[in-house]
Amino acid sequence: MKVYSYVPGGYAGDLVSVEVDIRRGIPSTEIVGLPDNAVREARERVRVAVRKAALEYPPDRVLINLAPAGVRKVGASFDLAIAVAVLETSGQLCPPDEPGRPAAVLVLGELQLDGTVRGVRGVLSAVAAATERGIDHALVPAENLREARALRRGTVAGAGRLQEAVSVLAAGCRARTPSGAAADVPGAVGTAGGSAAGPKPDANMPDYAELRGQPRFKRALELAAAGRHNLIVVGPPGSGKTMGVRALPSVTPDLEQSESLEVTRIYSRAGLLGGGADLFRRPPFRAPHHTASLQGIVGGGRDLLPGEISLAHKGVLFLDEAAEFRKNVLQSLREPAEERRIVIARAGRTYWYPADFQLVLAANPCPCGYFGHPTRMCTCSMAEVTRYWKRLGGPLIDRIDVRVRVDPRASDGPSREGESRDDGGDAPESSGKMHGRIVEAVRRQRDRYRGEPYSSNAGVPASHLKRYARVSPENEGVVEQAAEKLSLSSRAMVSVLRMARTLADLDASADVHRQHLLEAIQHRRLGEGHRWF
Fold first, then answer.
1. Fewer Cβ in 10 A, N or C end of the chain?
2. How far is CA 409 from the centre of its chain?
3. pLDDT tens digit string along 413-435?
């Protein structure tokens, strides 16, 4: 039986084969294969834990090799795998020819001196990596069992103590266990499964019925949520920017199964899954503070942990007070926003994480917040306003499809041609009504792009737009005129067609019509050429 463990590294990580050689000589234990201090110290923890479990640690020279040798092994999650490999090699588990004996098993867990198995992070990622390599048996700490079973593949067992781990692996074998025979461990082993309810929406989440007026803002939010378009909201303090954006999760549909697995693997790697967590069902919503570091946003560091852009995978990355973020942090978002992943280079190796996030920015129009306000006076000079907006920069703004200016008053007043109205007169539309339209629009996109590497209109490459966003010849002139009049870049024209496709989906239309193009242009034009006000 081959014993494997796992070393985290990016989204996929590396499986590690734990090999043991026992030979006669002065009793000693040596661990090779580029271990860090925590892994080297495992020899002492394992020796004591095995003795406390009423088992025998070999009184010989023990060599433990962690392969591949060129990958640095970090953390204490190798303890249990080393203990199992030593017991297996010394003949204290199943005999080599025992029927039903698994050919390979993934083992994870940290050992205390009394034999208690402590939980570790990244268990779901490890089990997923093992099943991709054809390893269908796994032994994990009991507190990580539910997380490991959320993958719903293979056979996963949990152990709270080393004795339980030995009993599980020796079940049905003729080998001696601590009690003298193979013991059953109630509730410790089973086929991976369980519910996958995942985190649920916050009951205290704002509802769009609470946002009075602001029809253009609500329409922009609906458009962004339906097509997963990047969005920027500009307005003075107290105009409802933050409240409107934070209500986005109330109208977004659930994740699909494959998306749930990807998101949950990322949170497992980051150590952010609770002991009873299942697969995520709701898209994540991340809102880091404007003092966040570059490493905190894009990921990396000594442990190569995922950053906020990966924790927002298949969800929303909301940067409130966007112009207050460091310029290098903001500019680092440009490539991941298009590539949908982040690549981190460390010590001659490259690691990657998924980063298919929807970027939502909220900003004041100037440092004091009242530039262009109808009743309040702005105290900023034009030089200060220019410096303020330079932090965002043209290249980042150009990657944002939907732009909206929020009026400081309670209502935007009557809507103009090409703008939407709040249905129901004085009764604001609730999140429930918006949710129904958005879910249907998302369903149409998922059906349309089935088999493609993208699932939303925002991700459609320019080369595929003619196929999926059909525009009649008489309406092609609308885009050309807008491009000439507003000096739209090539990226902006692609953005208009993507938004028009989403607006058509909201109207359950197979084709893109003139009204969809006109409205998409209105949502894009704010800020073109830095004409924000």
1. C
2. 37
3. 434 334 444 544 456 788 889 99
